[in-house]
Amino acid sequence: MNVLSGYFTKESGQNSRENLMLPKGLPVQMGPYFVTYRGDSISTVDKDKTLYIVEYERKAKLEDEPTERFTLYPDAYLNVKGQEGITPNPDSKHYLTRDIFTYITAVPRKDIPADTLPYTPHVISQGDTMYFSKGFMVLENLNTKPKQKNYQPEPGDIAVGAEIYVHTRDNGDFRINPVYFIRDSSFQANVPDTVAPLSMAVKFTKILPNENKVQIEMKETREPMDYIVLKALVFPYINVLWIGIIVMAVGFGMAMRQRMKSK
């Protein structure tokens, strides 16, 4: 897996949640919160900076209504040329008794092209089902007078279209019609059909008359998973520390002023 890993120059050992992987859109429990990575965007001020949208919901169970909800926007500079890795900057949520700091430790490389799988052959009969990563397809019928936008019939063609029903979990249903044909009594060819939302191509490549079957080949593009690896640090009573620093600074200033007056 092609990953850009981050580094953070200095961090506290206070109550940290170590390197939690968040797939995009999937809530993951982290202590009393369910944390969801919603996506990223490029900073309008600095084009080299990427902002990551991380939603926190405080609840006991995933199905419960949250008692608190907030969104943090940690960012990072991605180094995809030359030096590998990322340079993260945290975002924080402030409370009276604690602060929560969130920063990114790793992200997938998006400059790598999507992984295209090879064609997979399936020898099937009418009514059979073929499965793929996002659903299934059924060979419903073989049509000896196929109509397909990319197939231009010529006189003497022997052509057969495979009428295929495609069902997916998330993208709805489709119907495709790849064509197999013989031209000039000897030239065998095929015209694939595609399912654009799935980046899938399907070919009708062979007729097996003795077995009363056909060969269908499918190819899908496997998109890289979008995710982040996140780390959260909880600093208890950080406000007390800042108050102490301010009091010390004021005291130091008053002491210097008193000394200058005494001179």
Structural write-up:
The protein is mainly beta. Helices cover 10% and strands 54% of the residues. The protein is built from one helix and 22 strands. It has one helix spanning 238-262; strands at residues 3-5, 16-23, 28-30, 33-42, 49-58, 68-72, 75-79, 85-89, 91-94, 98-108, 115-116, 120-124, 129-132, 135-143, 158-168, 173-176, 179-183, 187-191, 193-195, 200-208, 213-222, 227-236. Strands 3, 4, 5, 6, 7 and 8 form a six-stranded antiparallel sheet that branches. It is elongated.
Uncertain ranges: 3-16
Oligomer: single chain
Rounded mean pLDDT is 81
- SSE class: mainly beta
Element order: H for helix, E for strand:
EEEEEEEEEEEEEEEEEEEEEEH
Shape: elongated
Strand content: over 45%
Rg, please? 30 Å
Tally the helices: what do you get?
Answer: 1
Let me know the largest β-sheet: 6 strands, antiparallel
Write the layout of secondary structure elements.
Blueprint: E1 3-5, E2 16-23, E3 28-30, E4 33-42, E5 49-58, E6 68-72, E7 75-79, E8 85-89, E9 91-94, E10 98-108, E11 115-116, E12 120-124, E13 129-132, E14 135-143, E15 158-168, E16 173-176, E17 179-183, E18 187-191, E19 193-195, E20 200-208, E21 213-222, E22 227-236, H1 238-262
Antiparallel strand pairs: 1-10, 2-22, 3-4, 4-5, 5-6, 5-7, 7-8, 9-10, 10-22, 11-21, 12-21, 13-14, 14-15, 15-16, 15-17, 17-18, 19-20, 20-21
